[in-house]
Amino acid sequence: MSKLDCEKLLQMIEETGTITLADLKILPLKELEEFLDELRTWCIYSGGDKKKLKKKKK
């Protein structure tokens, strides 16, 4: 997955508050695991505040 794909998914969450399983299906397994870990951390520590989403993947 390129950074563009990850940024696209983060942008979708920021704008709409949702992503679909079809969106997640485009990611390779390793990238999907990393993305879900980041999403989980954001939900736990930021309380789901869309303004606190990371703009770029590390």
Give a nutshell description of this structure.
This protein has one domain (3-52).
Describe this structure in words.
With 58 residues, the protein is mainly alpha-helical. The chain has one domain (3-52). Helix content is 62%, strand content 0%. It contains 3 helices and no strands. It has helices spanning 3-16, 21-25, 29-45. The chain is globular. The model has no long low-confidence stretch (mean pLDDT 76).
Oligomer: single chain
Unreliable spans: none
What's the structural domain tally? 1
Number of strands: 0
Question: What does the overall shape look like?
Answer: globular
* C-alpha end-to-end distance: 13 Å
Q: Indicate the structural class.
A: mainly alpha
Specify the biggest β-sheet. none
Q: On the 0-100 scale, what is the average pLDDT? A: 76
Order of helices and strands: HHH
Give the DSSP E fraction (strand runs of 2 or more residues).
under 5%
Helix content: 55-70%
How large, in whole angstroms, is the Cα Rg? 11 Å
Number of helices: 3
Q: Layout of helices and strands, plus pairs?
A:
Layout (H helix, E strand, L loop, with lengths): L2 H14 L4 H5 L3 H17 L13
Task: Give the key terms.
mainly alpha, globular, 58 residues, 0% strand, single chain
